[in-house]
Amino acid sequence: MANVLGLIEVRWALAEDQALQDVTTHLLGSTAERLVLGQLVAEDGLVVAGSPFATLVFRELDANAEFSSLIADGAWARAGATIATVRTSARALLAGERVALNFMQHLSGIASLTRRAVNAVAGTSAQITHTRKTTPNLRALECYAVRVGGGVANRTSLADAILWKDNHWVVAAQQRKSLEAALAAAPADVSVAVEVDNDTQLDAALAAGVTHILADNQSPDRIAEWVRRAGPAVTFQASGAITPESARAYALAGAKLIAIGALTHSAPAAAIRLDVCSATPSL
Questions:
Q1: I need a surface site. Which of 101, 157, 186, 237 has the fewest CB within 10 A?
Q2: pTM (predicted TM-score)
């Protein structure tokens, strides 16, 4: 995931923090060029995510920086565990500390919340996925963190797949255009999902041959009823204010995909700190 997009995000973050104009570290003078060793430490139990981006942060500031992941992305770190170490100049470590932690804390928080949801539906056929309720310009990174936490990929842009939602129903009705007529123009190589709010819309979607139904803001009981009506050839995705605590009820109702917006828009940051070791590392 540490690809060109990740590098762009890292460079934006460093520019935002004006890392190359660190007036505080400048006070250290030549001491700032000394080699130091830092440790990223989990303060609470968490699922690690974001190490590739923390690596990029320090290497942007020091091409010779050595970032060593001791606990891989996707693995559990107990409270007090050292997640990674970074060996670089004091100048680079102090300039990149906050940006690296911002990536690690935010993405590890998403991965940890996702893991809670994944564990909640364990033993069922349901999978946890994300929505497009993401932080502007951070969608790729946040969806990466969901996958690291055990979730699966979902539509990440308007071009990825057709998703006929509530407002599409309204606009089409105003023009007296049926769902079946609209979907007739769909490219053959693009997947189609249709959101339904009531029995009439479900019937229209099934009549149009839709095999992926999005049930948004519906109760587990109603989804279970719709799953029985539609039959096993139709996949139901549940969404709308679902939490890790309520996810299992939707899984037991027959939803194969459970989309949780809170994974990306409301996950609390994981508690991670960066400590400079007191002893100077050997060269």
A1: 157
A2: 0.94
- 3-state DSSP assignment of residue 165: coil
Cα separation, 68 vs 38, in Å, equals 10
Q: What is the pLDDT of residues 187-235, one digit of tens each?
A: 999 999 999 999 999 999 999 999 999 999 999 999 999 999 999 999 9
99-135 as b/e: b if 16+ CB within 10 A: bbbbbbbbbbbbbbbbbbbbebbeebebbbbbbbbbe
**Eight-class DSSP state of 244:** T
The verdict on whether 216 is a catalytic residue reads yes
- Give dist(CA 129, CA 190) in Å, integer: 19
Please tell me which residue in 11, 98, 155, 222 is annotated as part of the active site. 98
Q: Which CATH number fits domain 4-114+268-276: 3.90.1170.20, 3.40.1580.10, 3.40.50.150, 2.30.29.80?
A: 3.90.1170.20
Catalytic-labelled residue, pool 133, 139, 155, 222: 133
Q: Which of 135, 130, 131, 187 is nearest to 161 (CA)?
A: 187
Per the CB < 8 A criterion, the answer to whether 118 and 147 are in contact is: no
The superfamily in CATH containing domain 118-265 is: Aldolase class I (3.20.20.70)
Tokens of 177: 């255009």
